[in-house]
Design a protein that fits this description.
Strand order of the largest sheet: 2-1-3-4-5
Order of helices and strands: EHEHHEHEHHEHH
Number of helices: 8
Strand content: 15-25%
Length: about 170
């Protein structure tokens, strides 16, 4: 299985979690391709055909990003709007994502216990990331869930990052 990890972090050089995950993915095997969208497209001008070719050559696509304001950074939304085109990803003749797997890897500032119904973050992380289940269904792909790191501002939680990164690398190919 060929895995594509799309890292979408506007300040990856300052990141702790996403930078560590990126490095873990790069070391996880030759069947994993890691692409940093903000490095590739700092001006936001996405090479649509190139990204479609890259996606066509992979079986699993993982969107990796910091969970900002209950969503993804701007460039991921722009990427999906521009790359998942009618006639390519859906619609008449749009079958290039059919049968692929889609997942997410997100870093969250709040602790896991804040992501419960009625809790500090109002809903579960599953609720917020459920949009990928819908996207996958529309594209005739399969949503495989997510990997997360919670409580990113807590130095004690950061001590678990090496184990979390190892689990991430394993999750990418399981």
């Amino acid at each position: 299985m060929k895995v594509l990890v799309l890292v979408v972090h506007p300040h990856l050089e300052k990141s702790v979690i996403n930078k560590t995950w990126k490095e873990a993915a790069e070391k996880a095997g030759s069947n994993i391709t890691v692409r940093s969208l903000y490095d590739l497209y700092p001006d936001g001008n996405i090479d649509i055909r190139e990204e479609q070719k890259v996606m066509e050559s992979h079986d699993r696509i993982i969107f990796q990003y910091p969970f900002y304001w209950y969503s993804a950074p701007y460039l991921l939304k722009k990427f999906m709007d521009e790359v998942f085109t009618d006639g390519w990803a859906y619609g008449a003749g749009g079958d290039k994502m059919e049968g692929k797997e889609i997942g997410a890897a997100v870093s969250c500032g709040s602790p896991a216990e804040a992501f419960v119904e009625g809790g500090m973050q109002c809903h579960t992380l599953e609720h917020y990331l459920g949009l990928y289940d819908g996207v996958a269904a529309f594209l005739r792909a399969r949503y495989i869930g997510f990997h997360a790191f919670y409580d990113t501002y807590n130095p004690t939680a950061l001590q678990t990052l090496p184990q979390n990164a190892d689990a991430y690398a394993q999750w990418l190919t399981k």
